[in-house]
Write a structure and sequence with these properties.
Elements: H1 6-15, E1 34-35, H2 36-44, E2 55-58, E3 62-63, H3 72-85, E4 90-93, H4 101-111, E5 115-121, E6 126-133, H5 139-146, H6 149-159, H7 164-182, H8 190-207, H9 214-235, H10 238-254, H11 262-275, H12 279-292, H13 299-320, H14 323-339, H15 346-364, H16 371-387, H17 393-414, H18 417-437, H19 440-461, H20 464-480, H21 487-508, H22 511-527, H23 530-533, H24 536-553, H25 557-575, H26 579-600, H27 603-623, H28 626-643, H29 650-665, H30 672-693, H31 696-716, H32 719-740, H33 743-759, H34 765-787
Parallel strand pairs: 2-4, 2-5, 3-5
Antiparallel strand pairs: 1-6, 5-6
Helix pairs in contact: 1-13, 1-15, 1-19, 6-7, 7-8, 7-9, 8-9, 9-10, 9-11, 10-11, 11-12, 11-13, 12-13, 13-14, 13-15, 14-15, 15-16, 15-17, 16-17, 17-18, 17-19, 18-19, 19-20, 19-21, 20-21, 21-22, 21-24, 22-24, 24-25, 24-26, 25-26, 26-27, 27-28, 28-29, 28-30, 29-30, 30-31, 30-32, 31-32, 32-33, ...
Length: about 800
């Protein structure tokens, strides 16, 4: 049962989800008189935007003009102007005037608009004009703002605002809003955002005591926090994330409980907390926002908040391994999906599909069945199909990154090489996109997935080049994002590298690779203790590496530490109700006891290993996982093969025979490395049973199985695995030689044991004991036969 690395990188997926709602505040308090006639004249001469047009509405103006009591004359005048500027613009009718900025926002949401113009006309030539625009991730508005058509018109509007302090704020709002939306495009203007943040600090100091309305200052702070969040998200800058949270917290405290802006601030606070890896606090903020929002007045904000709440709940469940929370989050997201119109709310629809895909992935990583990964694949493929040709390359790369995990996980579980290859292709496409876009943070995240896909393919095909590519991918991550820039990502990278070092060691039996892997894991534990203390994956990985170290060094005390790690990991996995990890920790414990028992010739430890393995096999049988059952039967055959070399009871022989018969008829492995390993294990039990019964036919059958396995190991250059096969061949030939007294068979045994001696030169003495004793015995028998 292969461990999936998705748990280590999963929570980062929510940080990079497509849908990050940053409310763009509506600076609608242009309460000073302006010359409406001059404004319209200037607007009429404005250059048209390059492409696209927003969804407009012009509300009836409040007016005291007896000739236009309904305000419809100036309303029509502005509508005609907009039509002149944007011939393709959709202009909706607004049934009534907007009372104030908050009322304008209500109208905006109720009518599903991008931009609402409204105001008053005091005299024929003077009045006040206001504009209110929607959440910056409205699909039409997003595409529109990217083209900067809004900028041409808004700059003209600003010329007619006589209050210099308010003009400064509004100019900041215009530029900041544009940068916020551009940040969701393929090439976020990070340097401009950083400069705008620095400028905003100076600006706020100069205007906060200017007598401006409090709501304008709050809007300013809200937009500043939005820029900080985007900058923190794209660069990983912790200070920016913390500042954003601090600003939103201040805004929440500043406004009255009945303020209709409070839900925006609570929502902003929740998103800032998500960025800081504080999903528990984020859930609290989103729940408060949801309690405030009236879905009838603010339907869009209500849906957006539910998306954020569902995503946060999944993140909480992931962090705390509380699968009830994950299920609650999934339910929230599934309900929102049913309320979204794919045609008119495409970005939100795609985003929710993406978030559901991520949520089902983490559920799949804790379940032995494939249903959750299949659901994840379905949601992400829907998202990708809808996104292509509509959304930007960066958004598509985000979905592709997540898809690669599904292909990799299903490929491992179903032994489907096509899926594993697809995982590599999909992840590599995302990596190349982010390289082109020069988005280092998202590039590193995609490279984590690429490495996992390359590693899974390498393990499946026993392809060392894929495994080394996976390691090179992770080492490249270190160069792109050094440890001092993002400690959490550094630690994740180190743990993934440690896992790869262990896998390479299992294939090559290279002690240097093992030492490198252990050093990495222990460095993470020293730097970030909390990343290991309650993490079952950490203890599982460390236990596996310690078991290998004990085998190399023959330091038998190490096995006790490995056993302790397996028990710690099992306790933590049980607390977290993670079925897959519980089974994996039992398998580790069984493996430690097997290796320890074999090296010390201790039948009790081998029997304990068998008991644990049979427990795992029973669980897999209940789950109906035939492929993994075969893997466990192979492991049991290996342990019985070790046991049958010692003094055994009749019951041991009976049990070993039953396991062998089950193993012969189970679904065979489709990956070549597993197939070779299974042949070796079958040969061990066949030999052990034949040696006890003196059955020459079965001894020769065991030799045939060894030769079949040996072909694969020689092709791959796995010298240690080949040596293990040769050691078994030597024992079989020795047993046949003892029985038949044939010198040629004994010479074959001597040649096999000599090859083993050469291969095991760098290992501890306990590893070489069997081959040394076999070699001496074969030589002695050959000499005895020659002297007769």
């Amino acid at each position: 049962m292969k461990r999936n690395n998705i748990r280590k990188i999963f929570i980062l997926g929510f940080v990079f989800s497509l849908f990050l709602v940053i409310q763009t505040p509506a600076f609608a308090s242009l309460s000073t008189l302006i010359n409406v006639g001059k404004l319209i004249e200037d607007l009429a001469t404005a250059p048209p935007p390059a492409v696209g047009a927003p969804l407009f509405a012009v509300a009836p103006f409040h007016t005291n003009d007896p000739s236009d009591p309904s305000g419809s004359k100036i309303q029509k005048q502005v509508e005609d102007l907009l039509k002149t500027i944007w011939p393709d613009a959709v202009i909706k009718k607004v049934p009534r005037p907007a009372l104030d900025a908050q009322d304008a926002q209500k109208l905006l949401e109720q009518l599903g608009l991008d931009w609402l113009l409204w105001g008053t006309q005091e005299e024929k030539t003077t009045g006040s004009l206001h504009w209110t625009y929607g959440i910056c991730f409205s699909d039409r508005y997003k595409g529109f703002i990217k083209k900067l058509g809004f900028g041409d018109i808004a700059e003209i509007l600003l010329k007619h605002v006589p209050d210099p302090d308010l003009t400064k704020l509004l100019k900041f709002s215009l530029k900041g809003s544009t940068l916020l939306v551009q940040a969701t495009s393929d090439k976020p203007q990070l340097e401009q955002i950083r400069a705008e943040i620095e400028e905003s600090d100076e600006l706020f100091d100069s205007v906060q005591n200017s007598g401006l309305d409090a709501s304008d200052l709050q809007n300013f702070k809200q937009e500043q926090a939005g820029l900080l969040m985007i900058y923190g998200l794209e660069t990983g800058d912790l200070q920016s994330k913390r500042r954003a949270k601090k600003i939103f917290k201040e805004l929440v405290e500043e406004v009255d409980a009945k303020s209709e802006k409070k839900h925006e601030y609570e929502m902003g606070l929740g998103m800032a907390e998500m960025q800081l890896g504080e999903p528990v606090e984020a859930v609290e903020a989103f729940e408060k926002a949801l309690a405030i929002i009236d879905p009838n007045l603010y339907p869009v904000a209500w849906l957006d908040n539910r998306v954020q709440l569902g995503t946060a709940r999944v993140a909480v469940g992931t962090m705390l391994s509380d699968y009830d929370d994950i299920q609650k989050g999934v339910q929230e997201l599934e309900e929102v999906l049913t309320k979204l119109d794919k045609k008119t709310q495409l970005l939100r629809w795609v985003s929710v599909q993406n978030s559901l895909g991520l949520a089902y992935q983490i559920l799949g990583s804790s379940d032995t069945k494939d249903k959750y990964f299949q659901l994840s694949l379905d949601h992400l493929l829907e998202a990708l199909r809808a996104a292509k040709g509509v959304l930007g390359l960066g958004d598509i790369a985000t979905i592709e990154t997540n898809l690669s995990s599904d292909y990799s996980s299903l490929g491992q579980r179903q032994r489907n090489v096509d899926y594993l290859n697809q995982a590599v292709v999909t992840a590599r496409g995302a990596v190349e996109t982010y390289r082109t876009l020069k988005n280092d943070l998202k590039l590193v995240f995609a490279m984590f997935h690429l490495s996992a896909a390359q590693s899974s393919l390498g393990e499946a095909l026993d392809d060392m080049s894929s495994l080394r590519q996976a390691k090179a991918t992770l080492e490249d991550c270190q160069r792109i994002l050094p440890a001092d820039e993002n400690k959490s990502l550094w630690a994740t990278n180190q743990m993934l590298l440690s896992e790869l070092d262990k896998t390479i060691t299992e294939k090559t039996f290279d002690p240097a690779a093992l030492k490198e892997g252990l050093d990495r894991a222990q460095a993470v534990k020293a730097a970030i203790p909390e990343m290991a203390e309650k993490n079952p994956d950490y203890y599982l990985l460390e236990g596996e590496m310690l078991c290998l170290k004990g085998l190399f060094s023959c330091d038998l005390g190490i096995f006790q530490q490995a056993l302790t790690d397996s028990e710690t990991s099992q306790d933590l996995a049980s607390q977290q109700k993670n079925t897959v990890l519980v089974l994996q920790t039992k398998m580790l414990k069984a493996g430690v006891l097997d290796t320890w028992g074999y090296l010390t010739k201790d039948p009790k430890r081998l029997h304990d290993s068998i008991t644990l393995s049979e427990s795992v096999l029973d669980d897999l049988t209940k789950e109906g996982d035939s492929i993994e059952q075969c893997s466990m039967l192979s492991m049991l055959c290996d342990t019985y093969g070790d046991l049958l070399e010692m003094e055994t009871t009749p019951q041991d022989l009976t049990d070993a025979g039953q396991i062998l018969e089950r193993f012969k008829v189970c679904k065979k492995a489709e990956f070549p490395g597993e197939a070779a390993s299974h042949l070796k294990c079958e040969a061990e039990v066949t030999y052990g049973l034949a040696a006890h019964g003196g059955d020459l036919e079965k001894l020769n059958r065991a030799l045939e199985l060894c030769r079949e396995a040996s072909v694969f190991y020689r092709q791959k250059g796995y010298t240690t695995e080949e040596a293990i096969i040769q050691q078994l061949v030597g024992r079989i030939d020795l047993t046949i030689g003892e029985k038949t007294k044939k010198p040629e068979t004994l010479r074959q045994a001597i040649a096999a044991f000599t090859n083993v001696e050469e291969a095991f030169k760098g290992y501890g003495p306990c590893v070489r004991t069997d081959s040394e004793e076999g070699l001496q015995k074969a030589k002695s028998l050959l000499n005895e036969n020659a002297s007769k």
